[in-house]
Amino acid sequence: MDISTACIHAGYKAGNGEPRALPIYQSTTYHYDSTDTVAGLFDLTVDGHMYSRISNPTCAFVEEKIAALEGGVGALLTTSGQAANLVAIMNVAGAGDHIVSSATIYGGTVNLFNVTMKRFGIDCTFVDPRASKEELLAAVRPNTKAFFGETVANPALNVLDIEVFATAAHEAGVPLIVDNTFPTPVMCRPFEWGADVVTHSTTKYIDGHALTVGGVIVDSGKFDWTVTDANGTPRFPGLCTPDESYHGLTYTDAFGEQAYITKARVQLIRDLGVYPQATTAFILNESLETLPIRMQRHCQTAQRVAEHLEAHPKVKSVSFPGLASSADHDLACKYLPQGSCGVISVVVDGGRERAAAFLDHLKLASIEVHVADSRTCVLHPASSTHRQLTDEQLVACGVEPGLIRLSCGLESADDIIADLDQALAAI
Question: Is 118 helix (H, G, I), strand (E, B) or coil?
Fold first, then answer.
């Protein structure tokens, strides 16, 4: 099916006389006819739901839909995008291990990798998103377990060269995990360029209406988890050696191409408890049905707005992959030929004070700690998420004092531009 059709028809299929819309299975537990059935569930030899901390029918149908959209063999919903990235990494790395990540990723993920996961004993080396294969391989250590990057970085809007990262990761014998939140599978499918695992913050475009916080992990099913290092030692023993918490079951033997996503669910989701409620999945399913239409509109509007702002005398610079002036324009044409997202990074002349004044004069766009909404929203990092930093410290971490993150919604592009122009005229 075309992806626009799959957004509607993949996943849940109503049987004869059953509800046409995906039902909300609002239950924490399930009924069984025998103790043997329950035993089979806990031995992972029988399909079904054992408890809604691990799986739920409503969630399962949405997982099936998202896996189909990305072209994967399975998906796993989580309670947030951060939880998705945490589980995706911890599924292959543990204390004493190391990962390689693009440096221009969401600040929350930087903190996750550089602070919290370091406390777990997992180290991270950050690399330039435009690094060559040789530079990426130079960052690899004997204990490296994964490469990570964002298709389109938040908020830097760098485009990841997925093929280069994938080639380097595979030469090192490790998977490439790509956060595909901003483009969504409508605009880019990283598996087609060599990625092995995809994550999303479903809070963003997949929801698209600022209703639910959530995340998802999608498994391509293509990576060989039985790979060994130069000494013949399994690189991913958690996947290809017995798990004593399931009576010595080995995931690669029992589940084949679904080994990674199954282990993530029955081991990490089981223990961390970061599985969403059925109502969250129901909302995501409704939003997914309109995702292709919404993404087309977001991208078209952002292109118009970015071109308009780039020519405005009170704007110092505009970062958007669709602009011909963008350093990543060639990569955008390769990986994102139909558009990238609706988010633009804008630097207003005059620094922190004028940027804040610009936001205060906006009427249509609202100030929010959010992006990828149906409503246009803006944020001035120097006044919010980076408020504690001086102007010098802001520049050092790549955020200019006058930087504004603008997320173009589904309103008329003319109305958005008019609002921006009147606010710029007022400062």
Answer: helix
Pairwise CA distance, residues 203 & 209, whole Å: 8
| Bridge partners (DSSP) listed for residue 406 | 344, 378
CB contact set of 268 (below 8 Å; sequence gap of 6+)? 87, 90, 91
Q: Name the average pLDDT for the chain.
A: 95
DSSP 204: T
**Could you tell me the pLDDT band of residue 381, with boundaries at 50, 70 and 90?**
confident
Residue 219: what residue type?
D
Which among 267, 271, 274, 273 has a CA at the least distance from the CA of 92? 267
What is d(CA 342, CA 140) in angstroms, rounded to the nearest whole number? 34
Least confident interval from 180-189, 210-219, 350-359: 350-359
- CA 342 to chain centroid: 15
Tokens of 188: 């880019």
**CB-based contact 176:166 (threshold 8 Å):** yes
pLDDT tens by residue, 320-336: 999 999 999 999 999 99
Residue of 220, 122, 238, 207 lying closest to 177 (CA atoms) = 220
Q: Using DSSP bridges, classify how beta strands 215-219 and 366-367 pair: parallel, antiparallel or unpaired.
A: unpaired
Place of tokens 């391509």: 220
In this structure, what token pair is assigned to residue 166?
């994938």
Q: What are residue 266's phi and psi, to 5 degrees?
A: -80, -10
> 284: helix, coil or strand?
helix
CA distances from 122 to 78, 94, 272 (A): 21, 6, 17
What integer pLDDT is reported at residue 401 of this predicted model?
Answer: 84
Whether the CB-CB separation of 166 and 192 falls below 8 Å is answered with: no
pLDDT at 119 over 90: yes
Give yes or no for a contact between 62 and 284, defined as CB atoms under 8 angstroms apart.
yes
